[in-house]
Design goal:
The protein has 406 residues and is of the alpha/beta class. The chain folds into 2 domains: 204 residues, Rossmann fold, CATH 3.40.50; 145 residues, Response regulator (Rossmann fold), CATH 3.40.50. Helices cover 39% and strands 20% of the residues. The protein contains 12 helices and 16 strands. It has a 7-stranded mixed sheet, with helices on both faces. Strands 2-3-1-4-5-6 form a 6-stranded mixed sheet, with helices on both faces. Strands 12-13-14 form a 3-stranded antiparallel sheet, with helices on one face. Helix 2 packs across helix 10 and helix 2 packs parallel to helix 11. 48% of the residues are buried. Keywords: Signal. Pfam families: Peripla_BP_6. Belongs to the leucine-binding protein family. This is Leucine-, isoleucine-, valine-, threonine-, and alanine-binding protein.
């Protein structure tokens, strides 16, 4: 009997110690300190040099502004400070993987954000799953990110190619309209054209040519000659980067040959060389005068105040939105960065952004969001064609198909 009761007492003591140990792990950090004393760490991957440098720096500015906005300037949430580490991917997938690994292993980040390139982002996605960390995809747009390459740890605040396609097709497609497409020869271009083709054909249009060019090319003569030979009613262009084709489209006088040009209105530096396209109808992801809401008003005013009267550009609101989404999720989790808990919170989560209300669709974690049907017009005092609103396309208007087969 003594041995029996001794065993029971030992077992009871072990259970008490185990319970105390579990409580300690939940309320303290690895060094025994209260978890509230440990910062939330966010690693942001962006193209801070190279062809997409302007995109990366827009994301960086937007992310910093977004944290300021979402935390009321405190840079903390639920009593925990927020620390951010920015890393340059150089728009090279292998570099993106190296930098993401460094952020996860050396910096110990709780979240990943990025990247400017779809190629970089696709290379990094498996790491989010391997390390079980939430990754906010911004501003990469390839459909495959929330499609064939989807994993449960990623949430995308940027729009995807199918959302672009729905907006782009709405602007020009119709029964019997002949359209040629022109895009860079990598995942961004492939997905963009595939999605646009589906949307345009659903509206009765005929895609007469799909032309792809080297994404690093600066001479598009042979590509554009094929477009001229196809004799479409419209040329729909999907492009990203500084080496845009607008000057050559003008030089080869496609519009004089009866081929109308349509595309997504790009960032301000690219708009500055689109003078030949004044009058073009297309779509916009963002231009600072298009959204009408308090968050965008704050962004425009604060951006001008901090950056020598510059207005936010194409991807600045996306960086801000990514930051807002993280802070809103952490508010709901009371500061917990546990990925499984956050997934449950973020699926279906709605939050306010410079583009209005966004919602993470539970099925594929794509943020449903507004887009804008626009016309490029000259505007007094502005040295580039300005996207002028024709119609705001609601999140329901541009909701993309679910492509992840979940």
């Amino acid at each position: 009997m003594i041995k029996k009761w001794g065993s029971v007492l030992l077992l009871s003591s072990a259970l008490v110690l185990s319970a105390c140990g579990n409580e300690s792990e939940e309320t303290t950090g690895t060094a025994g300190t209260d978890i509230k004393d440990e910062p939330i760490k966010v690693g942001v991957l962006a193209s801070l040099t190279g062809a997409l440098e302007s995109y990366g720096k827009q994301t960086q500015r937007g992310f910093e502004l977004g944290l300021d906005y979402a935390t009321d300037g405190t840079m903390e949430v639920a009593g925990r400070k927020i620390e951010v580490v920015f890393e340059d991917t150089e728009t090279k997938p292998e570099v993106a993987v190296q930098k993401a690994t460094k952020l996860l292993e050396e910096d110990g980040v709780d979240f990943l954000v990025g990247s400017s390139s779809s190629g970089d982002t696709l290379a990094v996605l498996p790491l989010a799953e391997e390390y079980e960390k939430i990754m906010i995809v911004e501003p990469a747009v390839a459909d495959s990110i929330t499609g064939s390459e989807f994993n449960k740890y990623l949430f995308r605040t940027s729009r995807n190619s199918s959302q672009d396609a729905e907006a782009g097709a709405a602007a020009i497609a119709g029964e019997g309209v002949k359209i040629a497409t022109f895009a860079p020869d990598y995942s961004f271009g492939w997905d963009g054209v595939a999605a646009f083709k589906t949307a345009a054909e659903d509206l009765g249009a005929d895609i007469v040519l799909e032309e792809f060019a080297d994404p690093a090319a600066t001479d598009f003569t042979s590509n554009l000659q094929k477009v001229i030979e196809a004799d479409p009613d419209y040329l729909f262009v999907v492009w990203a980067g500084a080496n845009s084709p607008w000057n050559q489209i003008a030089d080869m006088k496609l519009q004089d040959k009866g081929i109308k040009i349509s595309t997504g209105a790009p960032d301000i530096p690219a708009l500055s060389i689109m003078e030949p396209l004044v009058g073009m109808e297309g779509f916009s992801v963002y231009y600072h005068t298009l959204p009408d809401n308090e968050v965008n008003d704050w962004l425009v005013e604060e951006h001008k105040a901090r950056y020598d009267d510059e207005v936010p550009d194409l991807f600045t609101p996306g960086g801000m939105t990514a930051a807002i989404s993280i802070v809103e999720a952490l508010k709901k989790s009371e500061g917990s960065a546990d990925a499984e808990e956050l997934i449950g919170i973020m699926e279906g989560m709605s939050f306010e952004t410079p583009k209005g209300t966004m919602t993470f669709r539970p099925e594929d974690h794509q943020a449903l969001q507004s887009m804008y049907s626009i016309k490029l017009e000259e505007q007094e005092g502005v040295p580039y064609p300005v996207p002028v609103l024709i119609e705001e396309l609601s999140p329901e208007d541009t909701e993309p198909p679910i492509l992840n087969n979940q």
